[in-house]
Amino acid sequence: MQKVLVIAGPTAVGKTSFGIECAKRFCGEIISGDSVQVYRGMDIGSAKATLEEQKEVKHHLLDIRDPDESYSVRDFQEEARKMIDALSSEGKLPIIVGGTGLYIKACLYDYVFPDEEGEDDLYEELTNQQIYDLLKEKDPAALEKIHINNRKRLVRALNIAEKHPFNITDIKSSQEHCCLYDALIIGLTEERTVLYERIEKRVDKMLEEGLLEEIRTLLDKGITFDHRSMSGIGYKEFRGYFEGNASLEECREAVLRNTRHFVKRQYTWFNNQLDVHWFSDTNEALEAVKAWLMG
């Protein structure tokens, strides 16, 4: 089986730098596993690897869509698998780096995306309440027009919100599906208080580096806050600022708050959905990678 290294973990934990270190040590190249970094012109808010970092190690699946184009988990699955095949054939180690667990799981496991007419079958194990709760998280505005008992409309709205035929998030366990690769999933972790401090420093650095200007440029090009690309944390929170309904500080606090909540969801997701080997010490993580490659 092809070997695939995955570097996962919460926002601001240091995945990018560790991925680059692994690529240098183990003759690898990086495949971005982030749902926002695929978009051109969305660099600062998505914490995309800098041009200098991209020169150190080759990165793939960055800047492959315009912000007004759609990009789905199905797209990532197809493109990431092609990249894994290409890198493996060149004798290089594919290293998926990112915090979008849904993308990572879809790539590694043998999920097949059926046509839309089979949508509801994919949710058959979920109650209306569970589907309702998922939609509330993804597109709460849609719920204003849909009753919880209207299952068909709930499923349709959720699929539209996700831009793909089904949500892997609530399929209970990876054991129900086969992993297609000899994959090692390294999860980087840190004490929550330390991580929150890093998040605050990162957000302030993004603002210093021109996040507002980046968003303004996108808006000037016709991208709106209703586009899928602008729904990510670090972008959507500034809608009020640009529409004159919120101060910069209020938006900054919203980014911090939403990021902290997202970190909690990331930990829960990775622990419930994937076989993650957690490390707070990157030297220990490197040794684990080395042992896996030699095994």
Overall description:
- With 295 residues, the protein is of the alpha/beta class.
- The chain has two domains: 3-111 and 181-294, 3-Layer(aba) Sandwich (Rossmann fold), CATH 3.40.50.300; 116-162.
- Helices cover 46% and strands 10% of the residues.
- It has eleven helices and six strands.
- The chain has helices spanning 15-25, 51-56, 73-89, 101-108, 128-138, 151-162, 192-209, 211-220, 239-242, 248-273, 282-294, and strands spanning 3-8, 28-32, 59-60, 93-97, 182-188, 276-279.
- A six-stranded parallel sheet has the order 3-2-4-1-5-6, sandwiched between helices.
- Strand 2 (28-32), helix 2 and strand 3 (59-60) form a beta-alpha-beta unit.
- Helix 3 packs across helix 4 and helix 5 (128-138) packs parallel to helix 6 (151-162).
- The longest helix has 26 residues, at 248-273.
- It is globular, with a radius of gyration of 19 Å.
- The two termini are 13 Å apart.
Name the CATH homologous superfamily of the largest domain: P-loop containing nucleotide triphosphate hydrolases
Gap between N and C termini = 13 Å
Strand order, main sheet: write it out: 3-2-4-1-5-6
- Percentage of β-strand residues: 5-15%
Compute the number of strand runs.
6
> Helical stretch count?
11
Radius of gyration: 19 Å
How can the largest sheet be summarized? 6 strands, parallel
Q: What is the mean pLDDT?
A: 89
